[in-house]
Amino acid sequence: MGFGDLKSVSGLKVLNEYLADRSYIEGYVPSQADIAVFEALGSPPSADLYHALRWFNHIRSYESTKTSLPGIKKALSNYGPANVEDSTPAAQDDDDDDIDLFGSDEEEESEESKKMKEARLAQYEAKKSKKPALIAKSCILLDVKPWDDETDMSKLEECVRTVVMDGLVWGSSKLVAVGYGIKKLQIQCVVEDDKVGTDHLEEAITAFEDLVQSVDVAAFNKV
């Protein structure tokens, strides 16, 4: 019995044909027979050998429970078509499991490896703690409208710039005509989002009620 040489194209074709009408190497449930052949195979069959590839991917899903599958793992010569002699290199039949093709995560890390990981983690945390926190800021363009064309716009701007808040920086400004000889003050500012809200800003400016009729947010952009 056997599949020929599972490391050769001919052996893989025998396996593919064998699995054409079978879900497993033996019986109707995954067993140690599947694990024995899987480990001898070593790598996935090519896409054109779709029966073997389907079986390979299915057995690989039993990574964490392979030792609990039923049956006893035997030599490859105990599996496969009766008219085919097994010729897979003997090294592949070694049951010592020196190489785990499932990539088990249960192997213990060496003490040196653990110490290296801990040291790198400590370095990362120290570097991260020194990195300045990113401060969220916004650029706001305000329209400050006077009561009429007789309002002293220079005085109005002067009053606006007297508004001082932690996280507020005033920028450039200009006067924009709105009609009937009336001009509004357009003024920019940059604020720290966690410290200055637009509601508080508008409230502080409209407090100059003799000069300011209203305040509108003309533009709001994250910096």
Architecture blueprint of SSEs:
Elements: H1 9-18, H2 32-41, H3 50-60, H4 111-130, E1 137-146, H5 153-161, E2 168-179, E3 182-192, H6 198-206, E4 212-222
Antiparallel strand pairs: 1-3, 1-4, 2-3
Helix pairs in contact: 1-3
Biased composition (Acidic residues): 92-111
Domain Translation elongation factor EF1B beta/delta subunit guanine nucleotide exchange: 137-223
Protein name: Elongation factor 1-beta
Mean pLDDT: 86
Along the chain, the helix and strand elements come as: HHHHEHEEHE
The name of the CATH superfamily of the domain at 137-222 reads Ribosomal protein S6/Translation elongation factor EF1B
Please give the count of helices.
6
Q: What structural category do the secondary elements indicate? A: alpha+beta
Query: Beta fraction of the residues?
Result: 15-25%
Domain Translation elongation factor EF1B beta/delta subunit guanine nucleotide exchange: 137-223
GO cellular component, one term: eukaryotic translation elongation factor 1 complex
Region (Disordered): 83-117
Biased composition (Acidic residues): 92-111
Give structural notes.
Helix 1 (9-18) crosses helix 3. It is built from 6 helices and 4 strands; from the N terminus they run H-H-H-H-E-H-E-E-H-E. A 4-stranded antiparallel β-sheet has the order 2-3-1-4, with helices on one face. The two termini are 73 Å apart. The protein has 223 residues and is an alpha+beta fold. The model is unreliable at 91-99 (pLDDT under 50). Among the domains are: 9-78, no CATH class; 137-222, Alpha-Beta Plaits, CATH 3.30.70. The relative contact order is 0.13. The chain is rod-shaped, with a radius of gyration of 38 Å. The longest helix has 20 residues, at 111-130.
